[in-house]
Amino acid sequence: MTLNSETPILITGLPRSGTSMTAGIMAELGVFTGPTVPGGEPNPKGFFENTVIREKIIKGILKAGDFCPLGVRSLPPRDFNIKISFGDGKSLKEILHNIIKAQGYSHNLPWLYKDAKLSLLWRIFNSQFPDALWVVVRRNRQNFIRSCLRTHFMVQHSTEEDFWNKFADDYELRLKELIQTVNRVIEVDTDAIISGNFNAIETLCEKIEIDFSKKIVDKFVSPEHWNRNNK
Fold this sequence. Notes:
Elements: E1 9-13, H1 19-28, H2 51-64, H3 92-102, E2 112-114, H4 118-128, E3 133-138, H5 141-148, H6 152-155, H7 161-181, E4 184-189, H8 190-194, H9 199-208, H10 214-220, H11 223-227
Parallel strand pairs: 1-2, 1-3, 3-4
Helix pairs in contact: 4-7
């Protein structure tokens, strides 16, 4: 199944679970992302979130509903699904198409949007892109908590393990419903990727009909960055 403007790859999961690494791998293999949030100490190779979509669309939807734009506190209800239209009457799909077109997207290529907050808004995106390929990223729960407690933009919300366990439970409930509902979904275990098992990435490449390159993936994946949060 070749993906195009109507069938994006939508990558989500808990924050600090490896969504950036997964999106970065696909970007290195040739999937269009548009301009993305640059890296820093928490994610040295980048976050791979389309900057315009994240700031204008994702955070805009959450702010409009009086929910936390960072997707940490005051989360939308699990059944959150509203019809999005913009001032000129365009749908969310049309707006996203216009954004990536302006960024240089060619319609014969697969494109992706990665954001942990898609876990909160997945019903809205599923209604706009019913044939999208969803990628749900997984990570060991304890490693996720350790990473949150070592990452400045996460630990600012809480230094308590119980908080992050509850947070993970809230996200996991939504991800479970996503998996049970959407037409196409692949689950990716990023702990396995770090260990050198790239089977899920190979499957993803097959689904979107692009070439898998172990050499490219090996070069991009950096266990030294990942494992520092597992100690």
